[in-house]
Design goal:
alpha+beta; five-stranded mixed beta sheet; 19 helices; elongated
């Protein structure tokens, strides 16, 4: 598995021996020597990137069908070879795994993705459903009460409401399932950025169909019967208007412990006392995020009422006074209108923290790129050729001295075989290096190998090309070299012994898990060029790009795409919840607006009142969402084990999004006051 522009690129070398053999999945025949079968995406890349041909020695003979690929964009190839060309290979008994070797997203990362999408999509969806459940609730209850007063029985009234709800739920379920089928067929063929799948892989299970087609109507029947219980039991009480009860302070209860946990983690990160118990944090951190999210929802009416009362007392503006008195008397309206957008901004900040953490653990941030490979797979002639690959700065051999498995003291030391010139090309910090003399490497800030004591002798096992073994004693020298390179993890540890190649017997090289290390620039173009150059020398060498995990990089791309889709869905749901709640609120308030108009209030005043009623609680909620969201993001990064705790790069975008939400809410509130005043609304009421 190699890395091609942050994507995993898998090459399978196959050599046929005597006896029957299965055909690889997705192929019509077994590839012979010099025959190459590639995935469709790789077939397209070979036309634009001629250097890829070095990785695939042979002539392209066909494409791998969908049965042999995990996804349409997978970079995969079967390369036919001779048995002598495949070193270290094993006997393949057959194919047949139905799953890919590496999952598209690791299970642990998938849990993080599920949790984040639950906050980004499901929380706004819960708000949207609660808003829809209360849609025109007052007028619906009056209609059911009228049916009850006309002589319909109590159970009959409940059945009428339940039947209407079930019909709507069933229609919505069928519409949703049909819409998903169309979207899956379309998007799977077009693809999302960095992510494509086969339509069959995105098809829904039977369980999902049963939940949607049976479970949703069943739940709607229960909700419909319960919702009509009040109108069926006491229809006369429905006609009486009652003042809304003020919100209780217990709504602040979830916010307080949630903020306490979040603030505690932020303080721990700021003081350098990062928590090490990840299992405890894995439970406490999601709990804090959920508590803060619920606390934002429940505390919004309380804060809106308190703020409205204070502003109404202090203002001399008629428009602002009317708006604030309405919010004071009806703080629940702010909850229905603003909650979805507030939760969206809160979830957006948390999503950024997830992306930052995942980016830290899968991306090479060093200015250089280290490549390592087993020395057993690299003959001496090949090693010299690899050192001349364009882009390679320098190379060295890493090894360890031999350890007797039967001995109680299994101590060994690291050995680096290189010249001072090679070392200087690898590291910007090399002091006191004398050519041809062994020395100990001292890396500042790194733990020293206790076994590397001056004067101690360790055996280094060597072997030549004919397989003849030889043991060379390595005495730990007293001379030291100050060394520090630019790789994330130092190529040579503190205490490693530098041995000049000239001090080893001619033709002999280390054995027992020795590795060849190459160094180049970390620029993406240079890394691709070096990998293609290595393949040009020997395409069967398995190269490990230290600090770059192509599978993890692909996961980051997929996760970013899915989170972007989740944010778009959350935005659509949040805006829909706002529009539904604001429209329903305006419809229910038409008699009051008409009364104010008949008393002499101008349309401009009424529009100002409407905008102020929506914008002020929304601004309060968004400020809370931005502050608590950034705190939750920082506490999540503190518990994630990365190096970044505080990130301000996304703050301008978050503030711009919040401002855009306020502007959208204000513009959406303007048309809710009609131009034509209908006095019939007052008479009818």
């Amino acid at each position: 598995m190699d890395s091609y522009d942050s994507e995993p690129f898998t090459r399978i070398f196959l050599a046929r021996v005597d006896g029957p053999v299965d055909v690889p999945p997705g192929l019509r025949k077994f590839p012979g020597p010099g025959e190459v079968f590639v995935s469709p995406r790789l077939h397209e890349l070979l036309r634009s990137d001629r250097g890829l041909a070095h990785l695939l020695p042979g002539k392209e003979k066909g494409l791998i069908s969908a049965q042999g690929l995990a996804q349409p964009d997978e970079l995969y190839a079967y390369v036919g070879a001779r048995p002598a060309e495949v070193r270290g290979g094993g006997h393949l008994s057959g194919f047949g795994w139905e799953e890919a070797r590496f999952p598209t997203v690791e299970p642990s990362t998938l849990d993080i993705l599920r949790f984040t999408l639950a906050g980004v999509v499901l929380l706004p969806l819960a708000v949207f459903l609660s808003v829809c459940a209360r849609l025109s609730a007052a007028s619906r209850m009056r209609r059911l009460a009228a049916l009850r007063l006309l002589g319909l029985s109590r159970k009959g009234t409940q059945r009428v409401n339940a039947a209407e709800t079930v019909a709507a739920a069933l229609f919505g379920a069928v519409l949703g399932l049909g819409g998903y089928w169309v979207v899956n067929q379309l998007i799977s063929r077009i693809g999302l950025p960095g992510f494509k799948w086969y339509p069959a892989d995105g098809s829904l299970s039977v369980t999902t169909y049963l939940v949607c087609l049976v479970g949703c109507p069943a739940l709607a029947w229960f909700v419909g019967r319960v919702g009509a219980k009040k109108a069926a039991a006491n229809p006369l009480a429905v006609r009486r208007s009652a003042v809304e009860k003020p919100p209780r302070l217990w709504g602040l209860l979830p916010l307080v412990p949630g903020l306490a946990i979040v603030v505690g983690y932020c303080v721990a990160g700021a003081t350098g006392n990062v928590p090490t118990d990840t299992s405890f944090s894995a439970i406490l951190m999601p709990l804090a995020v959920v508590l803060v999210g619920i606390g934002l929802v429940l505390s919004l009416p309380i804060l809106s009422r308190v703020l409205a009362r204070q502003v109404a007392r202090a203002t001399s503006s008629l428009s602002l006074g009317l708006a604030m008195r309405r919010n004071e008397m009806e703080p629940g309206g702010a909850l229905r209108v603003a909650t979805g957008l507030v939760l969206l901004v809160y979830a957006a900040s948390l999503t950024q923290g997830v992306l930052i953490e995942l980016d830290q653990v899968s991306k090479n941030t060093a200015p250089v790129q280290l490549y390592t490979m087993s020395l057993d797979d690299v003959p001496e002639k090949t090693e010299r050729a690899l050192a001349k690959v364009p882009g390679i700065r320098s190379h060295a051999v890493q090894a360890r001295t031999w350890t007797d498995p039967d001995s109680e003291e299994r101590s060994s030391i690291s050995v680096v075989i290189a010249t001072c010139a090679q070392l200087h090309r690898m590291s910007p910090v090399v002091e006191n290096c004398v050519e041809g003399r062994p020395s100990r490497l001292i890396v500042p800030g790194q733990t020293y190998d206790e076994g590397s004591q001056p004067g101690k002798i360790y055996p280094l096992h060597l072997r030549n090309s004919d397989g003849k073994p030889r043991v060379v004693p390595v005495r730990v020298p007293s001379r030291t070299i100050k060394y520090h390179d630019d790789t994330d993890a130092q190529m040579a540890g503190s205490g490693a012994v530098l041995i000049p190649p000239s001090s080893l017997p001619a033709g002999f090289r280390p054995e027992d898990r020795a590795r060849l290390a190459l160094l180049s620039s970390a620029a993406p173009g240079t890394v691709s060029s070096v990998l293609e150059g290595i393949a040009g020398v020997d395409p069967t060498i398995e190269v490990e790009t230290v600090g770059v995990d192509p599978a993890s990089l692909q996961q980051i791309t997929v996760i970013k795409t899915l989170l972007a889709v989740g944010m778009i869905l959350g935005l659509v749901i949040g805006v829909a919840a706002y529009l539904v709640a604001a429209t329903d609120r305006a419809v229910e308030r038409r008699p009051q607006v008409t009364a104010l108009a008949l008393l002499g209030a101008r349309p401009r005043t009424l529009r100002t009142v409407q905008v102020a009623q929506v914008v002020l609680p929304l601004v309060v909620g968004l400020v809370l969402a931005v502050v608590t969201g950034k705190m939750a993001e920082s506490s999540y990064l503190v518990t994630g084990g990365g190096a970044v705790f505080w990130d301000g790069a996304g703050l301008p975008l978050l503030l711009a999004s919040a401002l855009g939400v306020v502007v959208l809410a204000a513009l959406g509130a303007l048309p809710l006051v009609g131009r034509r005043i209908d006095p019939e609304l007052v008479r009818r009421d």
